[in-house]
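Structure representation.

___
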Amino acid sequence: MTAFAFLTATEILFGRGKAAEAAPRVAAFGSQVFLLHGTPARADWLAEALAGQGCTVSRFVVNGEPDIAMIEAATQAAKRAQVVVALGGGAVIDAGKAVAAMVPANRPLLDHLEVIGKSLPLDQAPLPFVALPTTAGTGAEVTRNAVIGSPAHQRKVSLRDKRMLPALAIIDPALTDHTPKSITLASGLDAITQVIEPYICTRANRLTDALCRDAIPLGLRALRRLMVREDAAARDDMVWVSLCGGLALANAGLGVIHGLAGPLGGLIAAPHGAICGTLLPHGLALNAERAADPARIHQVIGWIAEAFETTPENALETLTDWSRRNGLPRLAQMGFTPHHLQQAAEAAATSSSMQANPVRLAPADLAILMARA
């Protein structure tokens, strides 16, 4: 049996209605609360509940994917905080993790960033961090890194430390109900990608396999239902798939799709989930073609075929066509030019996600993959 280690959030609360427990659980960590969120009106309930627990709440709006300037500004605003809370999608949760890490830090943010910085470990333990996801996509509530953009470097890179895992993740599927279709599609394809890549990567282990094996077909079926109608049971399933993906990627690895999505996202402010979704079938096809042992990749393709009621030979084309019909744009429609694709292909060589891909791919291979997407 392959040896492995497994780390995750200190505590996970999962289920409909669990968000109601957030305020007293957060207050137990401290009365000075720094709350990051997206649309302010969607976070008022939590701010009011925290105030009702006797907390002083400072709020910070995350109005896009986090970059260095945003994290530095939020960190300065959070200097008095005893606990950091993030209510939102993956961008909000990543911002929260980074702020919780950097408030006690003695070094500047850049010193700790991978690729563009010094990759130094944190010199102080982060503040307690509580995550409440409102989308089913990134699984960021159970990962040990925060993805941060650097416009100056045209890259997205990670701030990473195992102590950045949340003290508490409260995962309530009701917070995702009635998410707009475009966000449901993009985040859902990201969630599905994040159970596929850890399953086929070189660092897969028995525990991550157990998380991914059932989640892949479950997520495909649930996302198909959500593109037709609002469905609470399907929302529950997608949130579970997203959680499984976060647990799996943090303890196994990813692959070519995320290896390219990071550099691409640093070049143009396109939604991460949409990038992953449009790359997914093409990444699977290329890996299946080049891998020495493509058995797991073909198993995944078989699950896609079953979910879309087609043959394995037609599965990836069917997934591509279905995604397009439901509004997923091609890379060119997101604004990526051939020059961008070449830059991303070269930058992916230094991406941590690429290191666990089931086959080594050259920049020329990556350029072909992206041209098809």
The two ends are 37 Å apart (CA to CA).
